[in-house]
Write a sequence for this structure.
């Protein structure tokens, strides 16, 4: 239901600045002059919208037709008009065809299964692309997710995340092997610092020729990045050196290597601006034009049959931000932080409630577990948790000392009592048990490398803190690591007062539908404004309502 704002005066509903040379003909009974009626007509995107003036009143209708007035003979003046508008018109139509989806909209992977099976399945059933958060999960857990999602979505759409593991490339390889084994045909690669043989292997292994001798791409690759030097690598064909190595290992054929030199590594590049988790905090208004220009330069060089599409992530949480991205040339938009406050996300209820209370300043950068030694940081929620402060303390100790034994006794005591809540020896034993199953060689190296041993001990806290947040570990709420960008606060501001303000009402499909429907609605409003129409605040805004 659309409710009328009683604070809006009748005279302030619609104003027109300009001249009219067109006329409108139809039933005046179809013209809405009241606030609620006007909003309803504007929201009827499937029909054209006519703004007319009759008897000095301005109203809106979806019916009738227009003509050129002669000799002032007008039933009503036509002040402005917009054609029917579909959410499918936003973004690049080839994204819809290529991924078989209804929107140029996707949800990004959030590691440790935060982007859960439930989330991917709910969106997939609505024909919206979603990426399962496979990063940080065991191969058995990922395999289980593949089976469940493929059973629920035998024809898609869905994607699985391939998270770059610079210190443990075997983890990357195991994920690729699983995706190839089970025929996962869309992968979202993220956090890559360079092209790796693993990501090239996945891409090239799905190449072939059809009956018309045209290249077929079975394994679709979406790459999330924020730097031009990384974008260049994925916009160009795979390096010959890597392809030859894959052929020599009998992982791909000579034909696949040849075909891989004729297409870009990625089908889609998601430009990631100021997002939750791994981020460079870059402004979208600067980053997107830069990558679009780079894409066009490389397209001019290689003349791909289908240019690489460039979408955006980071800060996309409202109809306004989605529309801004589309108007800047984004082929599609990707949401992240907002989805983990939804009921389908693999996060605890406590975490969802904290996210639903977040404001834009309630985030900060903290050391990342997977690239701790490199000093890489990620963006997390600071409201309601001490994790970012404590994680930063661990990194400072790592920088300043060469081993656990070098840390002053008073500092070690604080670590054991306040952060770890157990002895460092006990933490090390847990660490050995865990790392031995994933990378036993690293445990052997740590025995002779006190600095490495210290980093592994500190990673115990960094790694578990995100799992505590997901599982709802009692007594550890103050240590929850919650990946979050400022978009979460923007989303909360937008839905305030609506049914989506309550976490229990937040469903990922509803969020997607409202962001896209709202973007289309605001596009219509801007179209009318450019024709000289001035609307009330009530009509200018789009707020979620139960669909």
């Amino acid at each position: 239901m659309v409710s009328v704002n009683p604070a809006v005066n009748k005279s302030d509903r619609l104003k027109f600045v300009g001249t009219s040379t067109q006329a409108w003909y139809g039933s005046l009974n179809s013209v809405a002059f009241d606030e609620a009626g006007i909003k309803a007509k504007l929201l009827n995107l499937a029909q054209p919208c006519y703004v007319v003036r009759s008897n000095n009143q301005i109203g809106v209708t979806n019916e009738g037709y227009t003509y050129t007035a002669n000799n002032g003979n007008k039933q009503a003046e036509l002040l402005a008009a917009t054609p029917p508008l579909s959410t499918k018109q936003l973004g690049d139509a080839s994204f819809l065809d290529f991924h078989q989806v209804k929107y140029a909209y996707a949800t990004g992977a959030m590691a440790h299964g935060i982007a859960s099976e439930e989330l991917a399945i709910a969106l997939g059933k609505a024909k919206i692309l979603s990426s399962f958060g496979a990063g940080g999960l065991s191969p058995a857990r990922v395999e289980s997710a593949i089976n469940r999602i493929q059973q629920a979505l035998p024809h898609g759409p869905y994607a699985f995340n391939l998270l770059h593991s610079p210190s443990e490339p075997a983890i990357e390889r195991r994920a690729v092997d699983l995706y190839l084994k089970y025929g996962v045909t869309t992968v979202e690669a993220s956090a890559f610092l360079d092209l790796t043989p693993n990501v090239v292997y996945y891409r090239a292994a799905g190449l072939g020729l059809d009956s018309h001798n045209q290249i077929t791409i079975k394994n679709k690759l979406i790459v999330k990045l924020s730097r031009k030097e990384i974008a260049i690598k994925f916009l160009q064909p795979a390096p010959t050196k890597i392809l030859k190595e894959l052929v020599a290992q009998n992982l791909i054929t000579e034909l696949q290597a040849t075909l891989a030199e004729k297409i870009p590594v990625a089908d889609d590049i998601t430009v990631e601006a100021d997002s939750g988790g791994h981020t460079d905090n870059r402004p979208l208004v600067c980053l997107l034009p830069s990558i679009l220009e780079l894409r066009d330069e490389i397209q001019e060089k290689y003349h791909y049959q289908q240019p690489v599409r460039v979408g955006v992530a980071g800060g996309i949480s409202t109809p306004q931000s989605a529309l801004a991205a589309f108007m800047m040339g984004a082929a599609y938009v990707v949401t992240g932080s907002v989805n983990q406050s939804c009921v389908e996300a693999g996060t605890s209820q406590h975490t969802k409630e904290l996210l639903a209370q977040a404001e834009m300043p309630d985030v900060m950068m903290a050391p990342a577990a997977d690239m701790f030694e490199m000093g890489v940081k990620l963006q997390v929620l600071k409201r309601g948790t001490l994790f970012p402060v404590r994680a930063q303390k661990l990194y400072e100790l790592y920088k300043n000392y060469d081993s656990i034994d070098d840390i002053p006794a008073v500092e070690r005591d604080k670590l054991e009592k306040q952060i770890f809540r157990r002895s460092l020896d006990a933490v090390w034993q847990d660490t050995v048990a865990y790392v031995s199953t994933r990378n036993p060689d690293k445990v052997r190296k740590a025995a002779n490398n006190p600095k490495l041993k210290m980093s592994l001990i500190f990673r115990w806290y960094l790694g578990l803190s995100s799992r505590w947040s997901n599982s709802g570990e009692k007594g550890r709420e103050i240590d929850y690591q919650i990946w979050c960008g400022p978009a979460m606060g923007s989303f909360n501001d937008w839905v305030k007062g609506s049914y989506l303000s309550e976490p229990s009402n937040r469903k990922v499909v509803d969020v997607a539908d409202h962001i896209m429907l709202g973007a289309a609605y605001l596009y219509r409003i801007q179209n009318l404004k450019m024709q000289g129409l001035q609307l009330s605040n009530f009509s200018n805004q789009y707020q979620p309502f139960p669909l």
Notes: The chain is about 40% helix and 15% strand. Residues 322 and 381 are 23 Å apart (CA to CA). Confidence is low (pLDDT under 50) at residues 1-11.
